[in-house]
Amino acid sequence: MKVLVLYTTVDGNTEAVGEAIAERLGADVSKIVRVSKIRGFGIDKIRAWFEVKFNRRPGIFPFKHDPRDYDLIFIGTPVWYDSYSPVYNTLFEVIKIYDRKIAIFSTGETDSQKALDKFSKKLKDSVILGRYHCIEPIWEDDEADTKKILDEASDWAEGVAKEAEKMIEEEEFERRKTIYKF
Ligand SMILES: Cc1cc2nc3c(=O)[nH]c(=O)nc-3n(C[C@H](O)[C@H](O)[C@H](O)COP(=O)(O)O)c2cc1C
């Protein structure tokens, strides 16, 4: 089974989760990088608010892997004003992701799941096998706490991957049954 982890990040929290998941699953990983840099503080927060509010599509650089080549795609986002990162407005405009097995994850300041709710709606043409949210792992005071959060996220991802594998086996079985009928 081919697994891809896609994520975007400003300060590194979502990146830490995405990289931990990719490492645990031995998955390919693509980071989505904005063309116009944005920081997570000061006047840029107002810019970010506008982008979210008006569903802007900020430019992104081409990334390494095409999600359509993968059986299972993990997609990670920082929470921005209770929503997902606007880079996904651009990404999903450029590449239509549908009929894929997907799992979504987010990192935020609070434990609110609102961004994941919106993300699920945006990805409604795919099968969403799981969702996971955690609070800013890299800003834990204790390294052990950071590790615990990343381990928990990786455990979740492993469970999702097992489920996806089982589904693919069942789908293949059904496909063969159909072929034998002809
Ligand atoms: C522009 C902006 C808006 C944010 N809005 C929220 C929010 O609505 N809810 C929340 O829990 N955290 C919010 N945060 C905090 C980030 O979601 C959190 O720090 C996240 O882990 C950042 O991910 P990153 O380090 O991968 O960029 C916001 C941060 C920024 C920069």
Question: Could you please describe the fold and organization of this structure?
Answer:
This protein is of the alpha/beta class and 182 residues long. The protein has one domain (3-181): Rossmann fold, CATH 3.40.50.360. The chain is built from five helices and five strands. Strands 2-1-3-4-5 form a five-stranded parallel beta sheet, with helices on both faces. Helix 1 packs across helix 5. The radius of gyration is 17 Å and the shape is globular. The structure holds flavin mononucleotide (FMN). The site of flavin mononucleotide has 21 residues, from helix 1, helix 2 and strand 4.
For the record, the CATH architecture stands as: 3-Layer(aba) Sandwich
Largest sheet: 5 strands, parallel
The averaged pLDDT comes out at 95
Overall geometry:
globular
Write down the CATH topology.
Answer: Rossmann fold
Number of domains: 1
Q: Which molecules are bound in this entry?
A: flavin mononucleotide
Q: Which class do the helix and strand fractions yield?
A: alpha/beta
The CATH superfamily is Flavodoxin domain
Helix-strand sequence: EHEHEHEHEH
Distance N to C terminus: 28 Å
Number of strands: 5
Helix content: 40-55%
Low-confidence stretches: none
Q: What is the class in the CATH system?
A: Alpha Beta
Q: Give the strand order, joined by hyphens, for the main sheet.
A: 2-1-3-4-5
